Amino acid sequence: MQNTDSLEQRSMIEAPSFDVIIVGAGFAGMYMLHLARELGLTATVLETAPGVGGTWFWNRYPGARCDVESMQYSYSFCEELQQEWHWSERYASQPEILKYANHVANRFDLLRDIRFNSRVESAIFHEGEDVWQVSTDGGEHYRAKWCVMATGCLSAAQRPNIPGLGTFKGEIYHTGNWPQEPVDLTGRKIGAIGTGSSGIQVVPELAKLAKHLYVFQRTPNFSIPARNQPMDSAYETEWKQSYAQRRTAARTMPAGIFTDIGTKSALAVSADDRLLEYERRWAAGGTGFTGAYSDLLKDEDANSTAAEFVRKKIREVVTDPAVATLLAPVDHPIGSKRICADTNYFSTFNRQNVTLVDLRSNPLQEVSENGLTAGSQFYELDTLVLATGFDAITGALSKIDIVGRQALTLKEKWRDGPNTYLGLMTSGFPNLFIVTGPGSPSVLTNVIVAIEDNVKWIADCLAHLKTRGAETIEATASAEEGWMEHVGQAAEGTLYTKAKSWYLGVNVPGKPAVFMPYVGGVPTYQKICEEVAADGYKGFVIEGRSESLSARQAVG
Questions:
Q1: Pick from 554, 485, 471: nearest CA to 515
Q2: Predicted confidence (pLDDT) per residue in 233-272, tens digit
Q3: What is the distance of C-alpha 485 from the center of its chain?
Q4: pTM for this model (two decimals)
Q5: In whole angstroms, what is the distance from residue 317 CA to residue 323 CA?
Q6: Sequence-ordered list of residues with C-beta below 8 angstroms from that of 145, at least 6 positions apart, any chain
């Protein structure tokens, strides 16, 4: 009988080798593959799903759509692509975004280098060879000098730990992992758990189908009407005539979104003028509402003017005063949690077949075969819809056994919270890049902008390493420490830390409560990244094979 170790060694010797392995075939992974090819590098993408699209492949729930306008939630790297693609709505739905992702994959001939149905289980750095060994659940092994984690910020669905959930005899669906085949919910008694962004989108659609819909809410959320509509041809033409200029302008704005941002304090204008501005933005729709004034996310008094305006709107829409009170958030500043954009969410609670259940006064006790109990009340259900969100930003990475120098695992290193340099790399893990990682603007932006900027920076870095003939690049511990201190200080200067949100990971039991995204904004962040690269990749150690370990240790 052959030794198991020798079999593994042989499989690794025979493993396909590439310059770059990319994990994930969402918008980040596809663009990374495209740029790697342009650099003349050999690359492959490993993807869990049977198709491209990342989070847009899995989030197929009724009502799923983007909260960034279609004309901006798209790639900007190719002018021809921008001009040829037509969006049918102001805010694109999941099917249309997935169609776009497939169009991109076919247009740039990406599919031949993507290995679908390949869930990455481990990525291990071999110090003696300066090579990453990446293994999948199917037993395949791959080798590469560089590894790029394009795993996405909102891709690891968070399933709640509810007693008895496994005993339920009806259907259970999670919004973040919705079935690929059609689901008929007509005439069902449905329980929807969760009222974050996914819940706010799915609830109105479920209400149209259900015999009765029970919405189980622990935390109410602020939401602004999306005012979605078919794409206006004149608006589309206006964008396409000046796409390049608008994309450039978007990158000068904090969220990377071309929009109208107020420059005054909410407290520096009269109450009448403030009301007019809020009404204007409410009528326009979309998450740009919180851009009305410059200090809405910095000053609690300023914020309260916007929060009370939205609470008043909720009370005007919802006919039952008790229900309206439950739906109006009072425990966090508006915008400190991800603000939502909805279509008829609050008015849905005026329907006779919809019941709101307040889990704060009636805690969820357990799920049983035919329903669930909240407080002392039992609710008979046919179907459960879990709109319980994601293990955000780090969740997908934590599902992979990532091992760096001296057998250090990423899980162990990040035990007390994620540490990165620029959100792009983490010390102790050479040649491992992260797209929109913790410590980058990521989820606080138009994520397509964040993706493009990160991927372009990584590609430029790889070009630099290739030209130099370098074997490894690694963030230093000191640079990482300084960056994370800066990230923390930036967050402390805002109202983001006043909410118990998934930005801090508090929705995941046992996850360290650390504010993960960088709030400094797209232009500030991008300027820092560009300066680091221009200064010879300051804060990183770059080595050739001939350079010694002791030299690396001395710099780190």
A1: 485
A2: 999 999 999 999 999 999 999 999 999 999 999 999 999 9
A3: 23
A4: 0.95
A5: 11
A6: 19, 20, 130, 131, 132, 431, 471
